Amino acid sequence: MNPLLKKLQPYPFEKLRVLFKGIEPRAGFTPISFGIGEPKHPTPTLIRDAVINALDGLASYPATLGSEPLRAAIAAWVMQRYGLESVDPATEVLPVSGSREALFALAQTVIDSRTKKDAADAAEPPIVLCPNPFYQIYEGAALLAGAEPYFVNSDPARNFACDYSAVPDHIWARTQLLYVCSPGNPTGAVLTLENWRELFALSDKHGFVIASDECYSEIYFDETNPPLGGLEAARLLKRGFERLVMLSSLSKRSNVPGMRSGFVAGDASVLKDFLLYRTYHGAALSTVFQRASIAAWQDETHVRDNRAKYLEKFQTVTPMLADVLDVRLPDAAFYLWANVAGTGLTDTEFAARLYADYNVTVLPGSFLARSAHGTNPGEGFVRIALVAGNEECVEGARRIVEFCRSLRS
After folding, report:
1. 275, 299, 323: which is the final residue of a domain?
2. What does 237-262 look like in DSSP terms, one character per residue?
3. Do residue 236 and residue 344 come from a single domain?
4. How many distinct structural domains can be found in the chain?
5. Domain of 152, in residue numbers
6. What is the pTM of this model?
7. What is the pLDDT of residues 224-252, one digit of tens each?
8. Considering 279, 299, 319, which residue would you say is the last residue of a domain?
9. Which of 257, 268, 260, 212 lies closest to 82 in space, CA to CA?
10. Domain Aminotransferase class I/classII large, which positions (predicted)?
11. Please, what's the b/e burial string for 22-61 (b: 16 or more CB within 10 A of its CB; e: otherwise)?
12. CA angle centred on 295, ends 263 and 245, rounded to 5°
């Protein structure tokens, strides 16, 4: 067996299952889960109809490159969303089977674990830099590519942005891939243009690829101020897409996680090698879902309606929870990143007792992070995914408020 598999840690939800083992929630409370970031809003009718109308595509093998109409639809969306003058659908766009699959596979394409940048690094594996807390796929992708993950802690004083200036130069020299997540999971933080300027300069100096995970980019609260994207930052800084790719998905934007439909866009040379890898990897997007994805990317009405539903929930729930926890509206995405230290409980104790007493599930922040540089930046926080309907989210928030107040009595 591949010995690198032994380096993988249990997924956060497996850790949560172990944490809750043996706990029987108090009777009288229906279960409410804020634990998993799975959209619960109804799938738009236009996408459901498009799937039905494309069922004849089940008789055909899907092309790894994706259909020309789909690549054209994605390129048009990217240009419109980020104000880009040109995106070549033939070379700068690649449909994928959801951003999760592509985030993992990209590392297998980019990382060269056999070569070192100089003689001083001869005994050292390449580095994949990750934010901390982070989406665990980044770590697994790095380890199975033969690289070493290096975690850059988010800082509450910097609106949970990572301090990349604190990364030693010898680490940057070994870095081959940098994962960024903007809007961030779990904090919702969005990279600023100055953040991007710093990262591009580092990439230019050290030659690493930047993978910008932007699957939450369409969940935000101000229609006049959508989150900045990596390709957009490149345009604003008057540079090309060299060593930069962004990944996006329909899962959150259009409430179709079961379609596993997304794309990668950016540096044509990176995508050329990524396409070669994926041709053997065998993860082509279903022809049925390719055709349905065209309908999704070409419509913004359902996306605005989706944002309005999240805004209503956040505007209602955030003030309720702010009365008992240290929490505020994020920049974007559908998570509240709540500091529970004031309750006197650790994040795991808080999650376990809330589940036992009120049958509400939240995810301990320490499960979403690693101890790095003397601290686990997720400790003392819980992630609350406001993915259910408004009434369920409000009821869950009411129970959390009651639970926190009971701790004071």
Report:
1. 299
2. TT---TTEEEEEEHHHHHT-GGG--E
3. no
4. 2
5. 45-299
6. 0.95
7. 999 999 999 999 999 999 999 999 999 99
8. 299
9. 212
10. 32-392
11. eeebeeeeeebbbbebebebebbeebeebbeebeebeeee
12. 15
